[in-house]
Each structure stands twice: as C-alpha cells, then as structure tokens.
Specification:
The structure is a single chain. By secondary structure, the protein is of the alpha/beta class. It folds into two domains: about 140 residues, Rossmann fold (3-Layer(aba) Sandwich); about 60 residues, no CATH class. Helix content is about 45%, strand content about 10%. The protein contains nine helices and six strands, in the order E-H-H-H-H-H-E-H-E-H-E-H-E-H-E. Helix 1 runs parallel beside helix 3 and helix 3 runs antiparallel to helix 4. The termini are close together.
C-alpha cells in the first residue's frame, strides 16, 4: 500500500505565491506572442502546462521562454519555502503510517534540491522512502508520470493513494489509476476540474482513522 503525498501545503506550509507566478508566466508568454488563449483560460492551467506553451514556442521560434519561466518559478519556490513549517504534525503522522506498514513517497513539482532543503528544514527528511521531484519525471502533475515513478521505485505496490491539496494532485491520481484523498479541499471545490476525490480530509491525522485497505 503506497501513500504518495504532495509537499507544498500538504506536508509543509508553503508560502509560494502561485497566483503571482502564474501572472508572471502569462505576461512573459504574452510579451513573446506565444499565447493566444484568453487570460481566464491560461490562469486555469497548471504551471507546468504554461511552461509547455513556452517550450512549444521555443521549438518553433528558437526562443528561450521555457528557461526563463523555470527561473521565475524557482525564484518563487526558494522564497516561498524558506523557513516553512510542517503541517498537522506531519512528521508524527508519517511516522505512525510507516509503523503500520504503509510505503510513503513524496511527489512534488518543485526542483529536487529545493524540495530536499525544505523537507530538512521542516524536520521531514527521512520520513518518506522516495522523493519524486520535477528532475525525476518527464511530465509533471497534473500528468500521472510522477505517481507512476513513485510506485515503480517503491516496488510491489497493489494500491496507491495520492494525498494533496490541489486539483493537479487529483488529476495525477486519476491519470495513474491511484485513489485521491483531497486535503483541506472539499469535493465541491474540485468539481469544476472534474476531479472526484475518493475521500476528503481536513487534518493529516485523519489518515490514521481511515480504512485504506478496502
């Protein structure tokens, strides 16, 4: 049984300003003439999907938008994860889950170096067997590749759950055949993204009370 946790705002209280990142990326795409979709549509895209728009423009026109976009994202990640604290006594919860025999992985769209630094600072490094960061998978959430890679590295997994606070976690779970447990998000919040969580929780400790074997 694998429990695959999102990191930002699931295990760690991140202060990454995702709306500000999205605005910066959209502005960069607009300035380069790389995006023709209305802002409302672009604003609904995951950051990785916006970077993919830039990468497609780079391929067609020899520009370097994707690199600039990742630089913007990485700068925000560094600022937003500085001194970030664990949520809901995450270390104790992860420890209790491992004691019960669950295999634990962390899946983040953040870069590996920054993710490791944040986990160490929050006292969570070593609580998971596997960390999958954006350096480790060709397609980021909402694609299911990272979930699949986590399961592959854990090995001998018959059932996997993804626990996260965002629609992209639910989409990654659905794409990989895993069950999605929405953290601090209601089913109604996710409905406009066509995400149907298997269960919703408001506190990580609720994972200790749910029968995950059925």
């Amino acid at each position: 049984m694998a429990l695959i946790f999102d990191m930002d705002n699931t295990l760690i209280g991140s202060r990454i300003d995702f709306p500000a990142i999205r605005r910066s990326l959209i502005a960069l795409l607009r300035a380069a003439g790389a995006a023709h979709e209305p802002d409302e549509g672009l604003a609904r895209r995951a950051l990785a999907q916006l970077v993919a728009v830039g990468a497609a423009h780079d391929h067609a026109h020899g520009t370097a938008l994707a690199r600039q976009m990742w630089e913007i994202i990485e700068a925000h990640e560094t600022d937003g994860l500085r001194d970030a604290l664990p949520l809901d006594n995450a270390g104790d919860v992860l420890g209790a889950l491992r004691t019960r025999g669950y295999r634990i992985a962390i899946l983040t769209n953040n870069g590996r170096r920054g993710a490791l630094e944040a986990l160490r600072a929050a006292g969570l490094h070593g609580h998971a067997e596997v960390l999958i960061a954006r350096d480790d998978t060709p397609a980021l959430k909402p694609a299911g590749d990272g979930v699949g890679e986590a399961v592959r590295r854990l090995g001998s997994i018959d059932l996997a759950y993804v626990i996260g606070d965002s629609w992209i976690d639910g989409a990654a779970a659905a794409a990989s055949g895993a069950r999605f447990i929405a953290y601090r998000r209601t089913a109604e919040d996710l409905r406009d993204r066509s995400i149907e969580p298997w269960r919703t929780i408001a506190h990580l400790s609720e994972l200790l009370t749910i029968d995950l074997t059925r």
